[in-house]
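2024-03-11 09:14:02 INFO worker-7 job=invfold-0412 stage=load source=structure_tokens
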């Protein structure tokens, strides 16, 4: 197009752009199209593939107006058969967040995608972030602006706005035709599989080969389905009902909290109870639901640790807590702290040695060659399962927990009685 130009807008320049009207007129002239609507339709199909794109919109379509468009760099053309991975997309979104510019702010759906990817790639997020930092280089301002828009358009094609068609997905009918064609060329490995499954095999006709492969795929599919873990709907419903009944008294929308909320009532008992730093009966009872609930509550965690210390078996919990702290540490302290944890709990002759299976030990020792926040993930999971199946059940049966639970029940009864008589004092 001869109309490719740099446009001045207020105090900035917009380089290498062309208007939608210019593109429509060019298509009509060079493709001998008489109807502007037809030219717009063809242009929108080309735009949907990412060969040109609007510079200020994520929706790839052509409008017959003054909207500015820019042509995609050949490197990003879909004809190069790109198949970008989610890690590439995560690096791209990270780069966008690093550059404090209005035009590079993430849209709502992109921010949601970034959060989802950060959860999915939690173990290697630091590597992804480092890759993004390495790619954010100081370039010529004009070149940087053009490249940013071209990269954004590339991802608008491969990770489109919700509601837009993903043009990179292959038509299911084409996939089916390709699959059927591949059936006709059965490899020697397929022949062995068919022999093993006692299925007929013949090179005489394509039809017989295709039929044999259909049988093979059906058997593989059905075997996979049989191996899948399935639950009956009655069991699922029973589990949900049980969970709801267990937590119903902790839901203030369903059950009124006791003591009542002092902001919505005249009863300040809750503040007195909190000031005493003694856990309520509800909190103590909740520790018995699961090990996770006990460890989430600082008071429950402290009591569990004291119980283990009384049995001279606190090293598992101390290791688990040390790994939790490691995940929240500043990056500069992570490597040294990871080595300290190894020396304290896993090294030969460690003062607080823990019992790990060989697989977890090997994985952990390999991870420590390049120590990171998640180097102890396997070991931590193994120790958590050990505590859950052994020490946690002993803790629930112990006098330490049972006595506290009964004591808090008595306090709770006192609160109810005093409230019914109009008193606001707390007895413990």
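2024-03-11 09:14:09 INFO worker-7 stage=emit residues=428
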């Amino acid at each position: 197009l001869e109309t490719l130009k740099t446009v001045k807008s207020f105090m900035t320049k917009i380089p290498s752009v062309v208007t939608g009207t210019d593109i429509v007129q060019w298509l009509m002239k060079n493709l001998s199209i008489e109807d502007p609507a037809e030219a717009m339709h063809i242009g929108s199909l080309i735009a949907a593939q990412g060969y040109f794109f609007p510079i200020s919109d994520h929706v790839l379509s052509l409008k017959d107006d003054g909207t500015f468009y820019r042509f995609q760099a050949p490197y990003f053309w879909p004809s190069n058969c790109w198949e970008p991975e989610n890690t590439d997309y995560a690096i791209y979104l990270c780069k966008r967040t690093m550059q404090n510019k209005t035009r590079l702010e993430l849209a709502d759906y992109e921010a949601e995608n970034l959060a989802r990817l950060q959860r999915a790639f939690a173990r290697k997020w630091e590597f992804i972030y480092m890759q993004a930092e390495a790619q954010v280089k100081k370039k010529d301002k004009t070149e940087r602006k053009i490249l940013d828009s071209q990269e954004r358009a590339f991802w608008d094609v491969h990770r489109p706005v919700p509601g837009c068609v993903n043009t990179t997905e292959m038509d299911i009918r084409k996939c089916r035709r390709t699959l059927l064609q591949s059936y006709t060329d059965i490899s020697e490995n397929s022949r062995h599989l068919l022999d093993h499954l006692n299925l007929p095999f013949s090179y005489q006709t394509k039809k017989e080969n295709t039929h044999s492969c259909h049988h093979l795929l059906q058997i593989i599919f059905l075997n996979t389905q049989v191996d899948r873990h399935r639950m009956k709907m009655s069991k699922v419903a029973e589990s949900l009902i049980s969970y709801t009944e267990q937590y119903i008294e902790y839901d203030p929308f369903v059950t009124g909290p006791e003591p009542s909320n002092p902001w919505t009532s005249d009863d300040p008992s809750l503040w007195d109870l909190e000031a005493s730093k003694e856990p309520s009966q509800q909190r103590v009872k909740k520790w018995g639901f699961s090990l996770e609930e006990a460890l989430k509550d600082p008071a429950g965690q402290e009591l569990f640790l004291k119980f283990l210390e009384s049995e001279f078996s606190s090293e598992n919990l101390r290791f688990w807590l040390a790994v939790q702290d490691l995940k929240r540490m500043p990056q500069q302290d992570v490597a040294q702290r990871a080595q300290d944890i190894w020396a304290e709990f896993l090294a030969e002759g460690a003062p607080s040695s823990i019992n790990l299976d060989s697989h977890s030990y090997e994985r952990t020792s390999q991870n420590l060659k390049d120590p990171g926040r998640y180097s102890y993930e396997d070991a931590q999971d193994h120790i958590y399962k050990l505590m859950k199946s052994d020490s946690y059940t002993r803790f629930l049966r112990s006098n330490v927990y049972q006595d506290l639970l009964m004591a808090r029940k008595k306090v709770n009864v006192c609160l109810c009685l005093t409230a019914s008589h109009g008193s606001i004092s707390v007895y413990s």
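2024-03-11 09:14:09 INFO worker-7 stage=report msg="Residues 182-190, 199-206, 423-428 have pLDDT under 50 and may be disordered."
2024-03-11 09:14:10 INFO worker-7 job finished
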